[in-house]
Amino acid sequence: MLTLAAFAVLALLLLSGCGSSDSEGDSGESSEGSDTSAAAGTCSYPADSQSGAKEVDAPEEKPQAKGSVDATVATSAGDLAVTLDADRAPCTVNSFLSLAAQKYFDDTECHRLTTEGIFVLQCGDPTGTGSGGPGYSFADELDGSETYPAGTLAMANSGPDTNGSQFFVVYDDSSLPPDYTVFGQLDEKSTKTVADLAAKGTDSGAGDGAPKEKVTIAEVTTAD
Questions:
Q1: Which domains does the chain have, with CATH numbers?
Q2: In which residue ranges is the amino acid composition biased (Low complexity) (predicted)?
């Protein structure tokens, strides 16, 4: 059984890769320049120092969606039904929908699965390396009350205000600090789909690595 100290070290190791260490992280060492003004109805998506993994336009500064937005993440493991919360995280949902509309997520692999300490499947990097992003970053949308129960859809990052395109699905209750913007929820069936995939483990048998069963996102669509 892990001691508290050992668990803390494990959690740190797992969390350190939740965002990219390159294109999404390089511009995120400071929140300066990546501030967002969701309360004022606008968002900021400053360009990264590195080019995007796929060529896409940055989202419009004014969020287009409000309230709950139903979306489907079609994957090789099955369709994942998600409800995006545009009121809670308007700039995050705005970016996610923009990338989906530009087919950024199409034919991309979910490159990372963790089965120890935290329980997440990470997706959204067309390079499949954990270092790819869309060529821009944006600020966190946090209030400090964030928790990560099973079914949570949240942004991966490599530090404060380094959000890009990578996101993770929580398939079992996970203890994480409130550092990752929660922007949606999977339904119970979809959460079980990810949990069943996770039960097959990683390709190396370790608690953190690529899924043993390759998972590819075919497309992300909305109900509208």
A1: 4-25+72-222 (2.40.100.10)
A2: 30-42
Structure-block tokens of residue 210: 């690529």
- Residues β-bridged to residue 154: 168, 182
Q: Whole-prediction pTM value?
A: 0.85
**What single-letter amino acid sits at 131?**
S
Token readout for 149 is 């129960």
Cβ-count burial 202-222 (b if 16+ within 10 Å, e if not)? beeeebbbbbbbebebeebee
pLDDT tens per residue across span 96-130: 999 999 999 999 999 999 999 999 999 999 999 99
Which tokens go with 204? 């190396």
Tens digits of per-residue pLDDT, 149-166? 999 999 999 999 999 999
Secondary structure of residue 151 in the 3-state scheme: coil
Q: Is the pLDDT of residue 2 over 90?
A: no
Nearest one of 16, 80, 77 to 200, comparing CA atoms: 77
Please state, as a whole number, how many other Cβ atoms lie within 10 Å of the Cβ of residue 17: 18
Q: Which amino acid is at 26?
A: D
d(CA 46, CA 27): 9
DSSP letters for 35-100: --BGGGTB---PBPSS--SS--PPPPSS----SEEEEEEEETTEEEEEEEETTTSHHHHHHHHHHH
Tokens of 191: 């959460």
User: What type of residue sits at position 169?
Assistant: V
